TrEMBL record:
It comes from Photobacterium angustum. Keywords: Cell membrane, Membrane, Transmembrane, Transmembrane helix. It comes from the Bacteria. The keyword Transmembrane helix applies. The chain crosses the membrane at residues 37-58, 65-82, 102-121, 128-146, 166-183. The keyword Cell membrane applies. This is Manganese efflux pump MntP.
Length: 184
C-alpha cells in the first residue's frame, strides 16, 4: 500500500510536468533530455527538502494526529487544485511563449516545484517513505514531461492538459482518503 500511496503522491505533484511538456509538444517544440532532467532534478530536490522539513514537524506532533491532519490537508489541497483550474490555465498560457533552454528549464523546474513544497511536507507528515517518494518524483517527472511533449498534438494530451487540476486534485483527495484509512 505504501508504494501505491507514494505513486499517487508523485503523480499528483508532477502532473504539471505533463502539461508543461504538452504545451511545448502542441507547438512542435522538443524538450531536450538535458532540460527534462534539470526540471525533474529541481522538483525532486525541492520535494526532498520539503519532506525533511515535514519530518521535523512530525517530531513535534504525535503520529496519530499528524497522520490524520496530513490526510485531511491532502483532501483540502485536492479540492483547492480542482477549484484553481482557471488560475493554472493562465500560467500555462504565459508559458507557451517561451523557448526551452537550459535557463528556461531551471526556471520551469523551480516553478513546477512550488506545489511540491506543501505536498512534500504533507507526504512526510503522513509517513510516506522519503526515498521512495524522491525516486518516484524523479521518474514520474521525467516520464510525464516526456509523455506530455510527445502527446502534445494528440487528443488524449489535450484532454489531460485541459483537466490537469481536476485530475491532480482527485489524486490528492484519493491520497488523503487512503492515508486516513491505512495507518503506517
Amino acid at each position: 500500500m505504501s508504494f501505491l500511496l507514494a505513486l499517487l503522491f508523485t503523480l499528483s505533484s508532477n502532473l504539471d510536468n505533463f502539461v508543461m511538456g504538452l504545451t511545448y509538444g502542441v507547438k512542435n517544440e522538443d524538450i531536450p533530455l538535458s532540460s527534462n532532467i534539470i526540471i525533474s532534478f529541481i522538483t525532486t530536490f525541492v520535494t526532498y527538502l520539503s519532506m525533511l522539513f515535514g519530518q521535523l514537524i512530525t517530531h513535534l506532533v504525535p503520529h496519530k494526529f499528524s497522520n490524520e491532519l496530513g490526510s485531511v490537508i491532502f483532501i483540502l489541497m485536492g479540492a483547492w487544485f480542482i477549484g484553481s483550474d482557471l488560475f493554472k490555465k493562465q500560467q500555462i498560457a504565459q508559458e507557451k511563449h517561451r523557448d526551452l533552454s537550459i535557463k528556461g528549464a531551471i526556471i520551469l523546474g523551480f516553478l513546477l516545484s512550488i506545489n511540491n513544497i506543501g505536498v512534500g511536507i504533507l507526504g512526510s507528515i503522513t509517513q510516506l517513505n522519503i526515498m521512495l517518494v524522491v525516486t518516484l518524483t524523479f521518474i514520474t517527472g521525467v516520464g510525464l514531461t516526456y509523455a506530455g511533449n510527445n502527446l502534445g498534438d494528440h487528443v488524449i494530451g489535450k484532454v489531460i492538459g485541459k483537466y490537469n487540476d481536476i485530475i491532480s486534485g482527485t489524486l490528492l483527495i484519493g491520497l488523503g482518503v487512503l492515508s486516513l484509512l491505512f495507518t503506517f
